[in-house]
Amino acid sequence: MKTYKNLKNLFDKICSFENIYLAYLKAIKCKRYRPYVLEFSYNLEENLFNIQKDLVNLTYKPGPYREFIICDFKKRQIKAPAFRDRIIHHAICNIIEPIFDKIFIFDSYACRKSKGTHRAVKRLEYFIKSLRTRLRERERERVNPTLKFFVLNATFLNILKIFIMTLFLICFKRKLATGKF
Q1: Which of 4, 10, 6, 5 is nearest to 98 (CA)?
Q2: pTM
Q3: Distance (Å, rounded) from C-alpha 44 to C-alpha 39?
């Protein structure tokens, strides 16, 4: 029964109008003048209440993804959710992010506040410098002077995404079951 109560409490927080409005503000960041944002914002209050109603009544259905190709370092196909869905993503993240952020390891940098690519690169530089210092010390002491280190830069395959999502869902269920947020 405690799990249901915790889940209901989280769901109520996600569905609150204040949270949905905050999610809207996050979703429009750097996209304020895009046509789909302007169209949604024209009837903002009504659209936000409709999102809230769909969530509360459990009638929400995600819209189709917008597909496009970008070419930065390599050609990549991007699938972006509809703007309405992005608001709901932000609404969910606003509530569950503080819960799960506490249990992530320190050196996890993707999609986290005060983290990101630049901090990850700085942390990597720190590790490389500390390894170089250790290597110099070992050379002075003549302990295995040929010791080398490597950095792995890997692209995750789709199968790994499925594994990670499954693992996340298991952890999420356990977190809800304990009721410790």
Answers
A1: 10
A2: 0.67
A3: 9
